[in-house]
Specification:
Elements lengths: L2 H13 L3 H13 L7 H11 L3 H18 L8 H13 L3 H13 L5 H11 L3 H8 L12 H8 L10 H13 L3 H14 L4 H13 L3 H13 L4 H23 L2 H6 L5 E10 L3 E11 L4 E12 L2 E14 L2 E11 L4 E5 L2 E7 L5 E12 L7 E13 H5 L1
Antiparallel strand pairs: 1-2, 1-9, 2-3, 3-4, 4-5, 5-6, 5-7, 6-8, 7-8, 8-9
Helix pairs in contact: 3-4, 4-5, 5-6, 5-7, 6-7, 7-8, 10-11, 10-12, 11-12, 12-13, 13-14
Length: 397
């Protein structure tokens, strides 16, 4: 293959990232995100705005149960609905259920996670964490101008952990590792307030904010932890990471679009392996690339094809965006033999079933290949495969 083809692939690979910006509106159409509020959901919002917290809580609970019953997947409940439900639970001071549901909303890709999480943290009395969470978050239009009064009326001070500090620290780290970040933050805040001179609390706490993409604040916490270490030799183990974290934070601040594109979490590495079939062709396919916390992926693709009694290879790039279990994508593919190259545009739609730990997914897609030459023929194929997601921190640690 000629070098200019490789240059084209690299250029389009990075260009495909821009699809994420317009893909949000497409996703709403695919998943019924526009005007898809149930009667209970609308009623709950009205009650909440009127200050009827108990009524709103009952209505949100019914809306969540109705959403579960009406979807094929138990994880198919709207992330926005869960986030609003979590916020209402916090107003009612049912913080255990509130934290559980806000973390569920985050793991379903809730766009307004940071706003609702900040409100829950403030309602619990964790003002510093709330301010940091709220820093880049925008209040949804329906509640703007209302939530400020609700905070002043319902804010309290609560302690969630009843364990000894060693067990609490262990649980905080475990929650963070499992993607239950808001619950982890609450435990770390309690530890930080109770044991302000213990360095490991700040050091471990910084990893939660780093994973959420708040790199400057993560660096601040890490530095506070390092400053509390007495032995200089022990400081060296963390100083290198602090330097890297500070540099990354500076880069993100210079490119604010990067956070919106990549989501609030650190991207993961993804590897896909699958098989596909067309009318007269069978293929083994693989993809390798990155997967962001807002369920957007971009990858380099490789394939081995057999059809018309001969083998051919394929190479290309693609980008996918998922909304719940639905996903769509677009790519550029080059199928090549020893004597020929066929360049094709490759749009696709499909379903992706992410496991609860979000370490892998089972993917089903239907793709079309539209040749970029006038004499080519459009083809379609059906593919099934498995995607594995790797935490980049664990890979390069």
């Amino acid at each position: 293959m000629k070098y200019k083809h490789i240059i084209i692939y690299i250029y389009i690979f990075f260009s495909l990232f821009s699809l994420n910006m317009s893909a949000q509106s497409i996703g709403k159409l695919l998943t019924g995100g526009v005007n898809n509020k149930s009667g209970e959901w609308n009623d709950a919002r009205v009650s909440l705005k009127q200050g009827n917290i108990s009524d709103a809580l009952v209505q949100y609970s019914k809306a969540v149960e109705s959403a579960k019953d009406s979807r094929n997947s138990g994880k198919g409940v709207s992330s926005d609905l869960l986030a609003e439900y979590a916020y209402t639970l916090a107003l009612h001071h049912d913080f255990d259920a509130s934290l559980l549901n806000i973390d569920r909303a985050y793991n379903l890709g809730c766009k307004n996670y940071e706003f609702y999480a900040s409100q829950i943290l403030e309602l619990m009395g964790h003002d510093e964490a709330s301010i940091e969470m709220r820093k880049d978050a925008k209040a949804p239009d329906w509640i703007n101008g209302i939530y400020q009064k609700q905070i002043s009326e319902h804010q309290t001070k609560v302690t969630m952990s009843v364990d000894n500090p060693e067990t609490t620290l262990k649980n905080a780290n475990k929650l963070g590792a499992n993607g239950q970040y808001t619950q982890s933050i609450v435990l770390f805040e309690e530890l930080k307030n109770a044991y302000p001179k213990v360095n490991i609390v700040y050091i471990d706490y910084s990893t939660v904010w780093e994973t959420l993409g708040h790199l400057s604040y993560a660096a601040k916490l890490l530095k506070q932890g390092i400053d509390k270490i007495e032995e200089e030799e022990d400081k060296e183990a963390f100083s290198k990471h602090l330097s890297e974290l500070t540099q990354s934070a500076s880069m993100i601040e210079k490119m604010p679009f990067a956070k919106k594109l990549l989501g609030v979490g650190i991207p993961k590495m993804m590897i896909y392996v699958g098989a596909s079939a067309a009318k007269d062709t069978y293929s083994l396919n693989s993809r390798m690339g990155i997967y962001t916390s807002n369920k957007f992926s971009a990858s380099l693709n490789l394939g081995l094809n057999y059809g018309n009694e001969q083998f051919s290879g394929s190479i290309g790039i693609s980008a996918y965006k998922a909304w719940g279990i639905f996903m769509c994508g677009i790519g550029l593919n080059d199928q090549f033999t020893e004597d020929n190259n066929i360049f094709s545009l490759a749009p696709s739609v499909g379903l992706t079933f992410l496991n609860k730990s979000q370490t892998s997914s089972f993917d089903i897609t239907i793709s079309s290949y539209i040749p970029l030459t006038s004499d080519g023929k459009v083809t379609y194929n059906f593919s099934i495969g498995k995607t594995i997601y790797f935490d980049l921190n664990s890979i390069f640690k």
